């Protein structure tokens, strides 16, 4: 033994599984055998005593988990960072451990209340003592990591645990001598795995299988070349031995029933001070303000969920609850993340939800120039559908041409900002990067449509979501009401129909909508136009007779013939002009002067002369036609609808109709109250919609 090594243990006299605070304890209440537990514990301690000194702390009644001394805290040099347990059941251990370490002459560091940290269970020094690997996600809060870094003067590397079975870092991660690391990667998130791979060379990483992880093979005590653990598979044993380690197995099944094994039962109390003393942590925090119907709209819950799901953690600094149903609440939230990149990702999602930074912390948006034509700087901020403002030289500037999946370019001289796509970026364009100096303008009162009578409420869009069968009719009423209003006010409705509209017999209803002035733009592809024209010319759609419902001999030829005919005329409009095309959806578009854009694809037959096969041009044509639209009807056309959704700013009502619920969910899931999904046959939908509009028109005439 080259240096004195000491461990603290606690005899299992009062050990038992009395409650459930981790998945291993489930079904094991009062199922441990005191005699066997004692024998197993003795076995472990005997081995330890061969290689190190062992100190004991007395067990205490009512604290059955005190045997797991790894969770007492973390000792480095003569400093002891005392644990603050997350589970209520273990908090009673804190004073006993505190007293013991004080008596041994340690300086005790205590975390602020409500900041959980579970000691060496979640904080493991690499065996050179240079960095401290710290876990979070279940028992220890990320915000505890910077405290530990400062107190103990170490560099802390934060790792996020994602599998509840491996709730403490020491259940899946064990740094070994000579830079080796024994670990189970699946218990940690992708970001953490990347960090490990950056810090530990591949030849030093000993990856453990799930089977070994479940035997607590990572929960090992490493003393020089000895690796002491409960149980290990033959393959892993061989790998450890190849790395120059001697594996010592000592069964600890009684303790695994409580979710702990060799490492958990010990606490190393002679960790030398780190050689290079520098406190360092990549953990970053920012304060945000959130206002609105935080509780009843579920906004706060969503904000906090997304923080945790993205690998961050939060603290609510202030919360003012609105007292009346109509009054809004506000909250100050501190968001922490293991790195600036993760923090930026979380903050930009929070901004999307409407969070803002406190006025005193406001900064200008960070801009970086484009250095390659059509390519944004690496850390560009990606845009959303929501109205956005960026701070330019101390002033908030509204972003023009809002759309999602773009970037924001700022002109600092003119103090203007606009959304654009990668392909339009010019050299030197100043692009917004990171999440500073950006805010989304969201209605704080968007719990429901404000004001108005109950009758109006019934006609309002009832929030994002997919309608149930029963609600289809009510929803169609709402849409009809809106379409009538938009027509009266001279607004624009754009329809994105798929070929199914024709197959399901919806063509005549769509035609009616066009003729009656309810449609102001039509966006689709080659197929629907061909089907519609085939039907107009020959009464079939893809060779199927819509009246009889059966396929016609040589029917597919009809499809090609329709294409050939229009090609012969030069375009759809010319076919109408020449009297070749005399009815149908596209005939009515031409007659009514309703503009349409057809985007081509690889599988198109023909195509029709009107179909735009240059997709960049097609996207531009689409975006021109949706300008100023108030309502967009997406009718069984997934790809074209997704394309439209990407370029549509918030505030435009989207109605997605499809027989396939997955498509509807995909399209209507824009996190905005303006989108609504309807799962139904699109032909039936159009039929119902025209009926409702006719009824409303009837009322109009009566009233006139
Ligand atoms: N360092 C450890 N992993 N300790 C295991 C602790 C087990 C204990 N039953 C708990 O859930 O807290």
From TrEMBL:
Where does this protein act, in terms of pathway?
A: Amino-acid degradation; L-arginine degradation via ADI pathway; carbamoyl phosphate from L-arginine: step 1/2
Q: Which PANTHER family match?
A: ARGININE DEIMINASE
**Coiled coil start-end:** none
Arginine dihydrolase ArgZ/ArgE-like C-terminal first subdomain domain spans which residues?
387-476
Q: Where is the LOR/SDH bifunctional enzyme conserved domain?
A: 286-386
Is Metal-binding a UniProt keyword of this protein?
Answer: no
GO molecular function terms noted in the UniProt entry: arginine deiminase activity; lyase activity; nucleotide binding
Q: Which NCBIfam families match?
A: TIGR00300 family protein
Cited Gene3D superfamilies: conserved putative lor/sdh protein from methanococcus maripaludis s2 domain (2.40.420.10), L-arginine/glycine Amidinotransferase, Chain A (3.75.10.10), putative lor/sdh protein like domains (3.40.50.10690)
Q: Which organism is it from?
A: Pedosphaera parvula (strain Ellin514)
Required co-factor(s) are: NAD(+)
In Swiss-Prot or TrEMBL terms, this protein is called LOR/SDH bifunctional protein conserved domain protein
Q: Does the keyword Lyase apply?
A: yes
The record's annotation in InterPro entries points to: ArgZ/ArgE-like, ArgZ/ArgE-like_C_1st, ArgZ/ArgE-like_C_2nd, LOR/SDH_bifunc_enz_cons_dom
Record's keyword terms, sorted? Lyase, NAD, Nucleotide-binding
User: Which reaction is this enzyme known to catalyze?
Assistant: L-arginine + H2O = L-citrulline + NH4(+)
A Gene Ontology annotation in the biological process aspect, one of them, is: L-arginine deiminase pathway
**Which segments constitute the Arginine dihydrolase ArgZ/ArgE-like C-terminal second subdomain domain?**
478-689
